[in-house]
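LAB NOTEBOOK - FOLDING QUEUE
OPERATOR: T.R.
BATCH SIZE: 2
PURPOSE: Compare the predicted structure-token outputs for two unrelated chains run back to back under identical settings.
PRIORITY: normal
REVIEWER: second-year student, initials M.K.

ITEM 1
FIELD SEQUENCE / FIELD STRUCTURE:
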Amino acid sequence: MIHDQTPCFTAFEGQRRIASGPLADVALAVKHAETRTTAPIAIYSDATGRPVDLDLRGSDDDVTARLQRTSPVEATGPRGRGRPKLGVVAREVTLLPRHWEWLSAQPGGASVALRRLVDEARRANGERDRNRAARDAAYHFMSAMAGNLANFEEAARALFADDRRRLAGLIATWPDDIRDHVIKLVERI
């Protein structure tokens, strides 16, 4: 399985897909589509299946510049203490006293031990975590775009049971672009 590292987004005008690709490209396609339609337009993150809100005011250059200035770190708030050049972010961790005792006895201290444990868990569970994220993304998208369509509940059950053949049969009558996008998201599982 190949995992593309470039975030991908997909925009829908009603039930019709109008663009898919990098956020800047999709944002500009939506900006131009808004001038010719009154139908609702929504942009979805392919990674999460959730809608994305964008500020599309101004010229194409204004929109692109705003998107380039917005980074994941800026979106989560100001940076605190830590090692910013390494990307270290300080957050609160709540543990029982026996956990703190064990962590502080580890070589390098609590931070090194926690980073090592997280890396080991990511290696051991990476594929399962990616599959769960892809399934969740497909479900979030399905809920938003197909929640009122025929067979939605059964399709959701088939998705979580990883019964792709049944899922494909249940969504066969859905609008082509919605059905195809669900299949695209499910194929990442």
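ITEM 2
FIELD SEQUENCE / FIELD STRUCTURE:
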Amino acid sequence: MIVQEQFVSIKAPPATVERYLTDPQLMMEWRSPLVVLDPIEGELMTLGSKHNLRLKSLALAGSTYTVTERDSNHILLTIDGLWRGQELWRWFADGDRTIVQNRVEYEVPDPSLRVFVVGLGQIFASLDMRIQLDRLRMLIEGRGQPAAQAR
């Protein structure tokens, strides 16, 4: 099982952070350009919703992500496809800041794809996760202005 986890501290209340983590328009501003999210069923990040997450680096191959738990402090997604596992988004207040955790636990059943993921893919995925969280923090804290607010 591969486990990747990153945290970021954002100077904003949890409700603001939750909005950026769940509003599809705002998500487009900080999510990785290496990832394509295609809705399958339901609104993105709502309980029971499904979307296909495809990676441009793998010729748009991907997996289906289903929101299996959702409340005002976390979102848990079950992953099924070329990689299988779960992804957790959790956020909680820490004084005047909100801590955001992104944790992905997965396995890659296909042996040829596993070789790529365990090698360079895992390094790039961790870096991409870090960049996404830094972009999220910068947007929320006002160092970057999301297009949704700039219009």
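REVIEWER COMMENT (ITEM 2): The chain is about 35% helix and 40% strand.
FOLLOW-UP: none requested
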